[in-house]
Amino acid sequence: MKKHHSDQYKDIFGRAIKAYYNEKDTTNITVHSPDFDDDIIPVEYLFRNFEQMPVLEQKALGLCSGKVLDVGCGAGSHGLFLQNERSLQVTGIDISPGAVEIASQRGLKDARQLDYFNLKTEKFDTILFLMNGTGIIGRLNKLDEFFSHTRSLLNAGGKVLLDSSDLRFLYDEDEEGGIWVDLAAGYYGELKFRISYKDEVSEEFDWLYLDFDSLELAAAKNRFSCTLLQKGEHYDYLAELKPL
């Protein structure tokens, strides 16, 4: 696998999304981590319709209201459902130019290539973070920045809907049935990934899986309410955050 130069940005998600949309190329995106075996993201999964979405995503889309910001919109599947089926005003943002191009071609009226933390001066009633929405936070020490920035983007009465997973299930049980986690190694939900597609591989990036108790503590510290809306089938959950 060819590693790209650090000054040469490879839009891996965008390349895969464009190839699938334009050519029906079903080559998978591969996820690499130093801690786990390689995994794949089937590119067609990024084009799923409402009926194909997990229950937590369906519930989140049903709870959206007002002006919606879909963070990490990808090919636009969530935003298109909200725009076309629920008649909501949706802004989709993603750092992938290729993904944004296809989301626009699919009909998302307001799709922008933009990093969430660079979005300023706009206000929304619902901010949506799905497909492990806490991932973009990166590390625990960036939670305060996340809450501060999120507060600046919410209208009065606004809310955040996000999903994540508690990765403790990946760790061994001790003899008494408890979960053994090496706390000296740092928070177990802080991971590093690379992604690859065909001959290209990304730089390493941080990705955060956040258990609900930790999210609740961080929310309270930053004067947000934190409500567990629903648990998924595999240690995942959907939560609602509101500024206090």
Name a few traits of the molecule.
244 residues; alpha/beta; Rossmann fold; seven-stranded mixed beta sheet; six-stranded mixed beta sheet; 6 helices; 13 strands; 24% helix; SAM-dependent_MTases_sf; methyltransferase activity; transferase; Class I SAM-dependent methyltransferase
Describe what is shown at a glance:
One of its GO terms (biological process) is methylation. The protein has 244 residues and is α/β, with parallel strands linked by helices.
Mind explaining what this structure looks like?
- There is one protein chain.
- By secondary structure, the chain is α/β, with parallel strands linked by helices.
- It has one domain (about 5-165, about 180-244): 3-Layer(aba) Sandwich (Rossmann fold).
- About 25% of the residues lie in helices and about 30% in strands.
- It contains six helices and 13 strands.
- It has helices at about 10-25, 55-65, 75-85, 95-105, 145-155, 210-220, and strands at about 1-5, 30-35, 35-40, 65-70, 90-95, 110-115, 125-130, 155-165, 190-195, 200, 205-210, 225-230, 235-244.
- The strands form two sheets. Strands 6-5-4-7-8-13-12 form a seven-stranded mixed sheet, with helices on both faces. Strands 1, 2, 3, 9, 10 and 11 form a six-stranded mixed sheet that branches.
- Strand 9 and strand 10 form a beta hairpin.
- Helix 1 packs parallel to helix 4.
- The longest helix is centred in the N-terminal third of the chain and has 12 residues, at about 10-25.
- It is globular.
- The chain starts with a strand and ends with a strand.
- Residues about 1-10 have low confidence and may be disordered.
